Amino acid sequence: MSRVGSDRNSRRGAPSPGDAGRRRGGLGGPTVRFVLAYLRANLAMEMEYRAAFLTQVLSMFINDGMWVAFWVLYFTRFPVVAGWGRTDVLALWAITATGYGMAVGLFGNALRLSRIIYTGGLDVYLTQPKNVLLHVLVSRTQASAWGDVLFGLVVFVWLCDPTWASTGLFLLGSLLAAVIIAAFFTLAQSLAFFIGNADTAADQLVNALIHFATYPTDIFRGLTKVLLFTALPAGFISYMPVGLMREADPIFIAGATGAAATLATAAILVFRAGLRRYESGNLITTRL
Amino acid sequence: MPSSAVVVRGLTKAFRVKTRAAGLGGAARALFHPDYQETLAVAGVTFTVEEGEALAFIGPNGAGKSTTIKMLTGILHPTSGEASVLGRTPWRQREKLAFDIGSVFGQKSQLWLHLPPSDSFDLLAHIYEIPAAEFASRRNHLVELFEIGPFLRTPVRKLSLGQRMRCEIAAALIHGPRLIFLDEPTIGLDIVARQTIRDLIRRLNREEGVTVFLTSHDVGDVERLCRRVVVVNHGRIIYDDSLNALKRRYHRTKYLDLLLDSPAGEFACAGARVVKAKGYGVKLEIDTERVRVDQVLSRILAEHRVLDINIGDPPLEEVIAEIYARGVEGGGSS
Amino acid sequence: MNLRGRDLHPSPDHRGSWLFRPGAQLAKYSAVAGVTTRSNMAYLADFFLRGIFLVIVMFVFFQLWRTTYSATGEDKIGGFSLREMIWYLAMTEALIGCFPRLTVVIDEQVKSGQLAYYLCRPYSYPLYLLSTYFGEIVVRLPVNLLIAGGMAFLSVGPLPFRPETIPGLALAITLGFGLNFTIAAAIGLLAFWFEDTGSFYLLYSRLLMIFGGMLIPLDVFPTAIRRIALALPTNLILYGPARLFVGHGAGAAEIWRLLGRQALWLGLLWLGLVGLYRLGVKRVNVQGG
């Protein structure tokens, strides 16, 4: 994960829904097939520029690796801090990286939604018979995200002593993290429906979420901790190594699942509301 | 006696481009044993430009024009050959040469977008080491000539394209260059703006003796500004002569636009063909080497009364397009 | 009014010469820096907005180190008190937040052909880049220092700062920026050879974060790694100046040694940069005919 802001892929052009766009919406077999078809097409496109794709994957790997190196150094010097140890932070990075990678790898446009909205880019999707939000999000993949996924998996397998149980928990954690991240991104970027160019604002929010999600939860206290489990739900992600992996605390797991579900619902509702505004032409935008 | 501004002999530029087979195997192979393909962008170009000339350097895309210009401005190093611009070898004395030449690249801007043009001018004064008094009078003169006074203090990104181009060309002239390279200076401009720019450049050339080296796809630019045309294709010069000679050479085709008093009907005549026939009007294309204009006219007058007549040359655009496609009959390089 | 340049210029032709007209050359590059500064003022609001991230970073750092210090029960870690640690991080974060996106800019200029304009001018492209680099830093540095410093102040209170170190500090910061420039510009110039220089730059910036002492002062490292980090020039960019800022190595001799090492590396890397540039310019490939 890196600070959002650079858009290397902007020269690639508009999406091409192809056959996948013909079926009606709804959750189920056709939708899943639609999403997978897009995923396959996106990856194929990235593979066209193979060298660029590989360098992006590698770069993100290096980027994440550096942070892990920092934490390894830190925990070598300070073995236990606020109840956290080296394995916990490694598990944290494994889960967050994999979760982020899955979210942004599948929903590549989650990082660009704001720009798509205020430049009138949704028009294309409105003329297609598929759910607009889903369609927009899956139309693109982010190459670097696959570096995150790879990294998360490597760290978990190599440095976290995986067992069958812990692997199951790891996958659950990554999935929940992915949902929370994707939903939060969507919410932040959807601000564009209401304030126009929300790029910088959305970037800040999103960077904040990810940044907090990569630090041990227990170094925060008081009001901050409350915020991390409400307004900026990074706490649900960052507490996974303890609440999920180490203790398998049912209350935490329920909480995290609930948070993921709530955020996802909120994201869909807010987007729908924003879309109504968009369709009615009430946006304060610069339609290019 | 005028001296040569540009002397070019056998200038050649070959590019080595890596090629690779498709697929993962190809990519792997390319990593260890790269295949190179040599493209000859410029293949031995020779010509001379005198001081005070206005030259059009034209050709289809990929012909080698930009490559040649970039060698003449010192940006590219040639593979072989020689060139001398204002007495200097461009790629060896780029910085010194830069003081005496100016360039405008139509699609790229040299002005700072967030600042007014005056700031960019001030900056250029420093870059070209122009003494303050001299700069002031030169800038005032250019501002007046290009009529950019009204928006001199407006940030460049707020200007229209026409206004911006006037500022770009003025900026290229701040330091009083003896030779300017213009690469597509009128691209994207509306008709009025285009004419304005053309007239300004023409005045610079005719009245102040600035040598103009123009590249443009707009034939109107060529016709209005230049007295000499060099046509490049496939890295070679295929035509180098005055504009008038070019027109005369292709004088064999004439167009006859007629308005008759009755429908033209079938008209068959060797060496003439009907290009357009609508109602009482007809347009004929005549190959004057096969039949004379007066012969065609007398044939028509025998059968119709002519109410209106127009005799014209083919547009220069067609002439040049034909040169691009077929080369020059009887050779044209001097 | 005659535009014929040749009548109006002095002879012999000393234009462009550092030897005969140093003032004109200095004026040239200062003018570029000045115009860059003015142009960047248009982005001032944007810089402040990006400062929000700096606020978050500083906040998180404070939470982390406050917890760390109380967990270990030690007064000093690596010789740094909590207050010094936070102010150290404030300085490294402020400095690194100033770095202009040099590699992206160079890449654009090379790939778009905009480079043609710069090569047509009577100046050195590396020096031109250096001028724009500092022109932008001059705008960003005060903003970052304000924000990071403000956060540090709110977290740990004021830093007992010795005003006599200011000249040395200012010089160390400037030379540090210069060092970063030579490396970043060299990476940027790789655009003459490589499609994507962004990954190289990422590698460098991550290296800088660890070995440059951005995340932790080098004194906290285990000895082996610290020796490697001190041997590289990267520690002179952030660690050196930030350390001086919080009062470590503030003796006159130590300051001179720091400045000396910075100047030495700067000279070497600058030569490397110019060499790379000369090689690259010969290789310029042109799109289109």
Number of helices of chain C: 11
Per CATH, the superfamily of the largest domain in chain B is: P-loop containing nucleotide triphosphate hydrolases
Main sheet record of chain B: 6 strands, mixed
Query: Which spans of chain C have pLDDT < 50 for at least 5 consecutive residues?
Result: 1-10
> Looking at the structure, what is the overall shape of chain C?
globular
Radius of gyration of chain B: 25 Å
Helix and strand element order of chain B: EHEEHEHEHHHEHEHEEHEEEHEH
Largest interface: B-C, 54 and 42 residues
**Order of SSEs of chain C, N→C?**
HHEEHHHHHHHHH
The gyration radius over C-alpha positions of chain C equals: 21 Å
Could you please describe the fold and organization of this structure?
The complex is a heterotrimer of chains A (288), B (334) and C (289). Chain A is mainly α. Chain A has 14 helices and no strands. The longest helix of chain A has 30 residues, at 250-279. Chain B is α/β, with parallel strands linked by helices. Chain B folds into 2 domains: 4-247, P-loop containing nucleotide triphosphate hydrolases (Rossmann fold, 3-Layer(aba) Sandwich), CATH 3.40.50.300; 255-312, no CATH class. In chain B, 35% of the residues lie in helices and 30% in strands. Chain B contains 11 helices and 13 strands. Chain B has helices at residues 23-32, 65-72, 94-98, 117-127, 132-146, 161-173, 191-208, 219-225, 243-249, 293-303, 316-326; strands spanning 4-19, 35-50, 54-58, 80-85, 101-105, 179-183, 211-215, 228-233, 236-242, 253-260, 272-278, 281-287, 306-312. In chain B, the strands form 3 sheets. Chain B has a 6-stranded mixed β-sheet with strand order 5-6-7-3-8-9, sandwiched between helices. In chain B, strands 11-12-10-13 form a 4-stranded antiparallel β-sheet, covered by helices on one side. Chain B has a 3-stranded antiparallel β-sheet with strand order 2-1-4. In chain B, strand 11 (272-278) and strand 12 form a beta hairpin. In chain B, helix 5 (132-146) packs antiparallel against helix 6. In chain B, 38% of the residues are buried. The model of chain B is unreliable at 330-334 (pLDDT under 50). Chain C is an all-alpha fold. Chain C has one domain (28-282). Chain C is 68% helix and 1% strand. Chain C contains 11 helices and 2 strands. Chain C has helices at residues 22-40, 44-72, 82-96, 102-112, 115-119, 125-156, 166-189, 198-211, 223-231, 239-245, 252-282; strands at residues 76-77, 80-81. In chain C, strand 1 (76-77) and strand 2 (80-81) form a beta hairpin. The longest helix of chain C has 32 residues, at 125-156. Chain C is globular and about 70 Å long. Chain C starts with 21 loop residues before the first helix and ends in a 7-residue tail after the last helix. Chain A binds chain C through residues 2-3, 6, 8, 51-52, 55-56, 58-59, 62-63, 65-66, 69-70, 73-74, 76-78, 80-82, 200-201, 204, 207-208, 211-212, 215, 218-221, 224, and chain C through 46, 49-50, 52-53, 56-57, 59-60, 63-64, 66-68, 71-72, 77, 104, 195-196, 198-199, 202-203, 206, 209-210, 215-216, 220-222, 225.
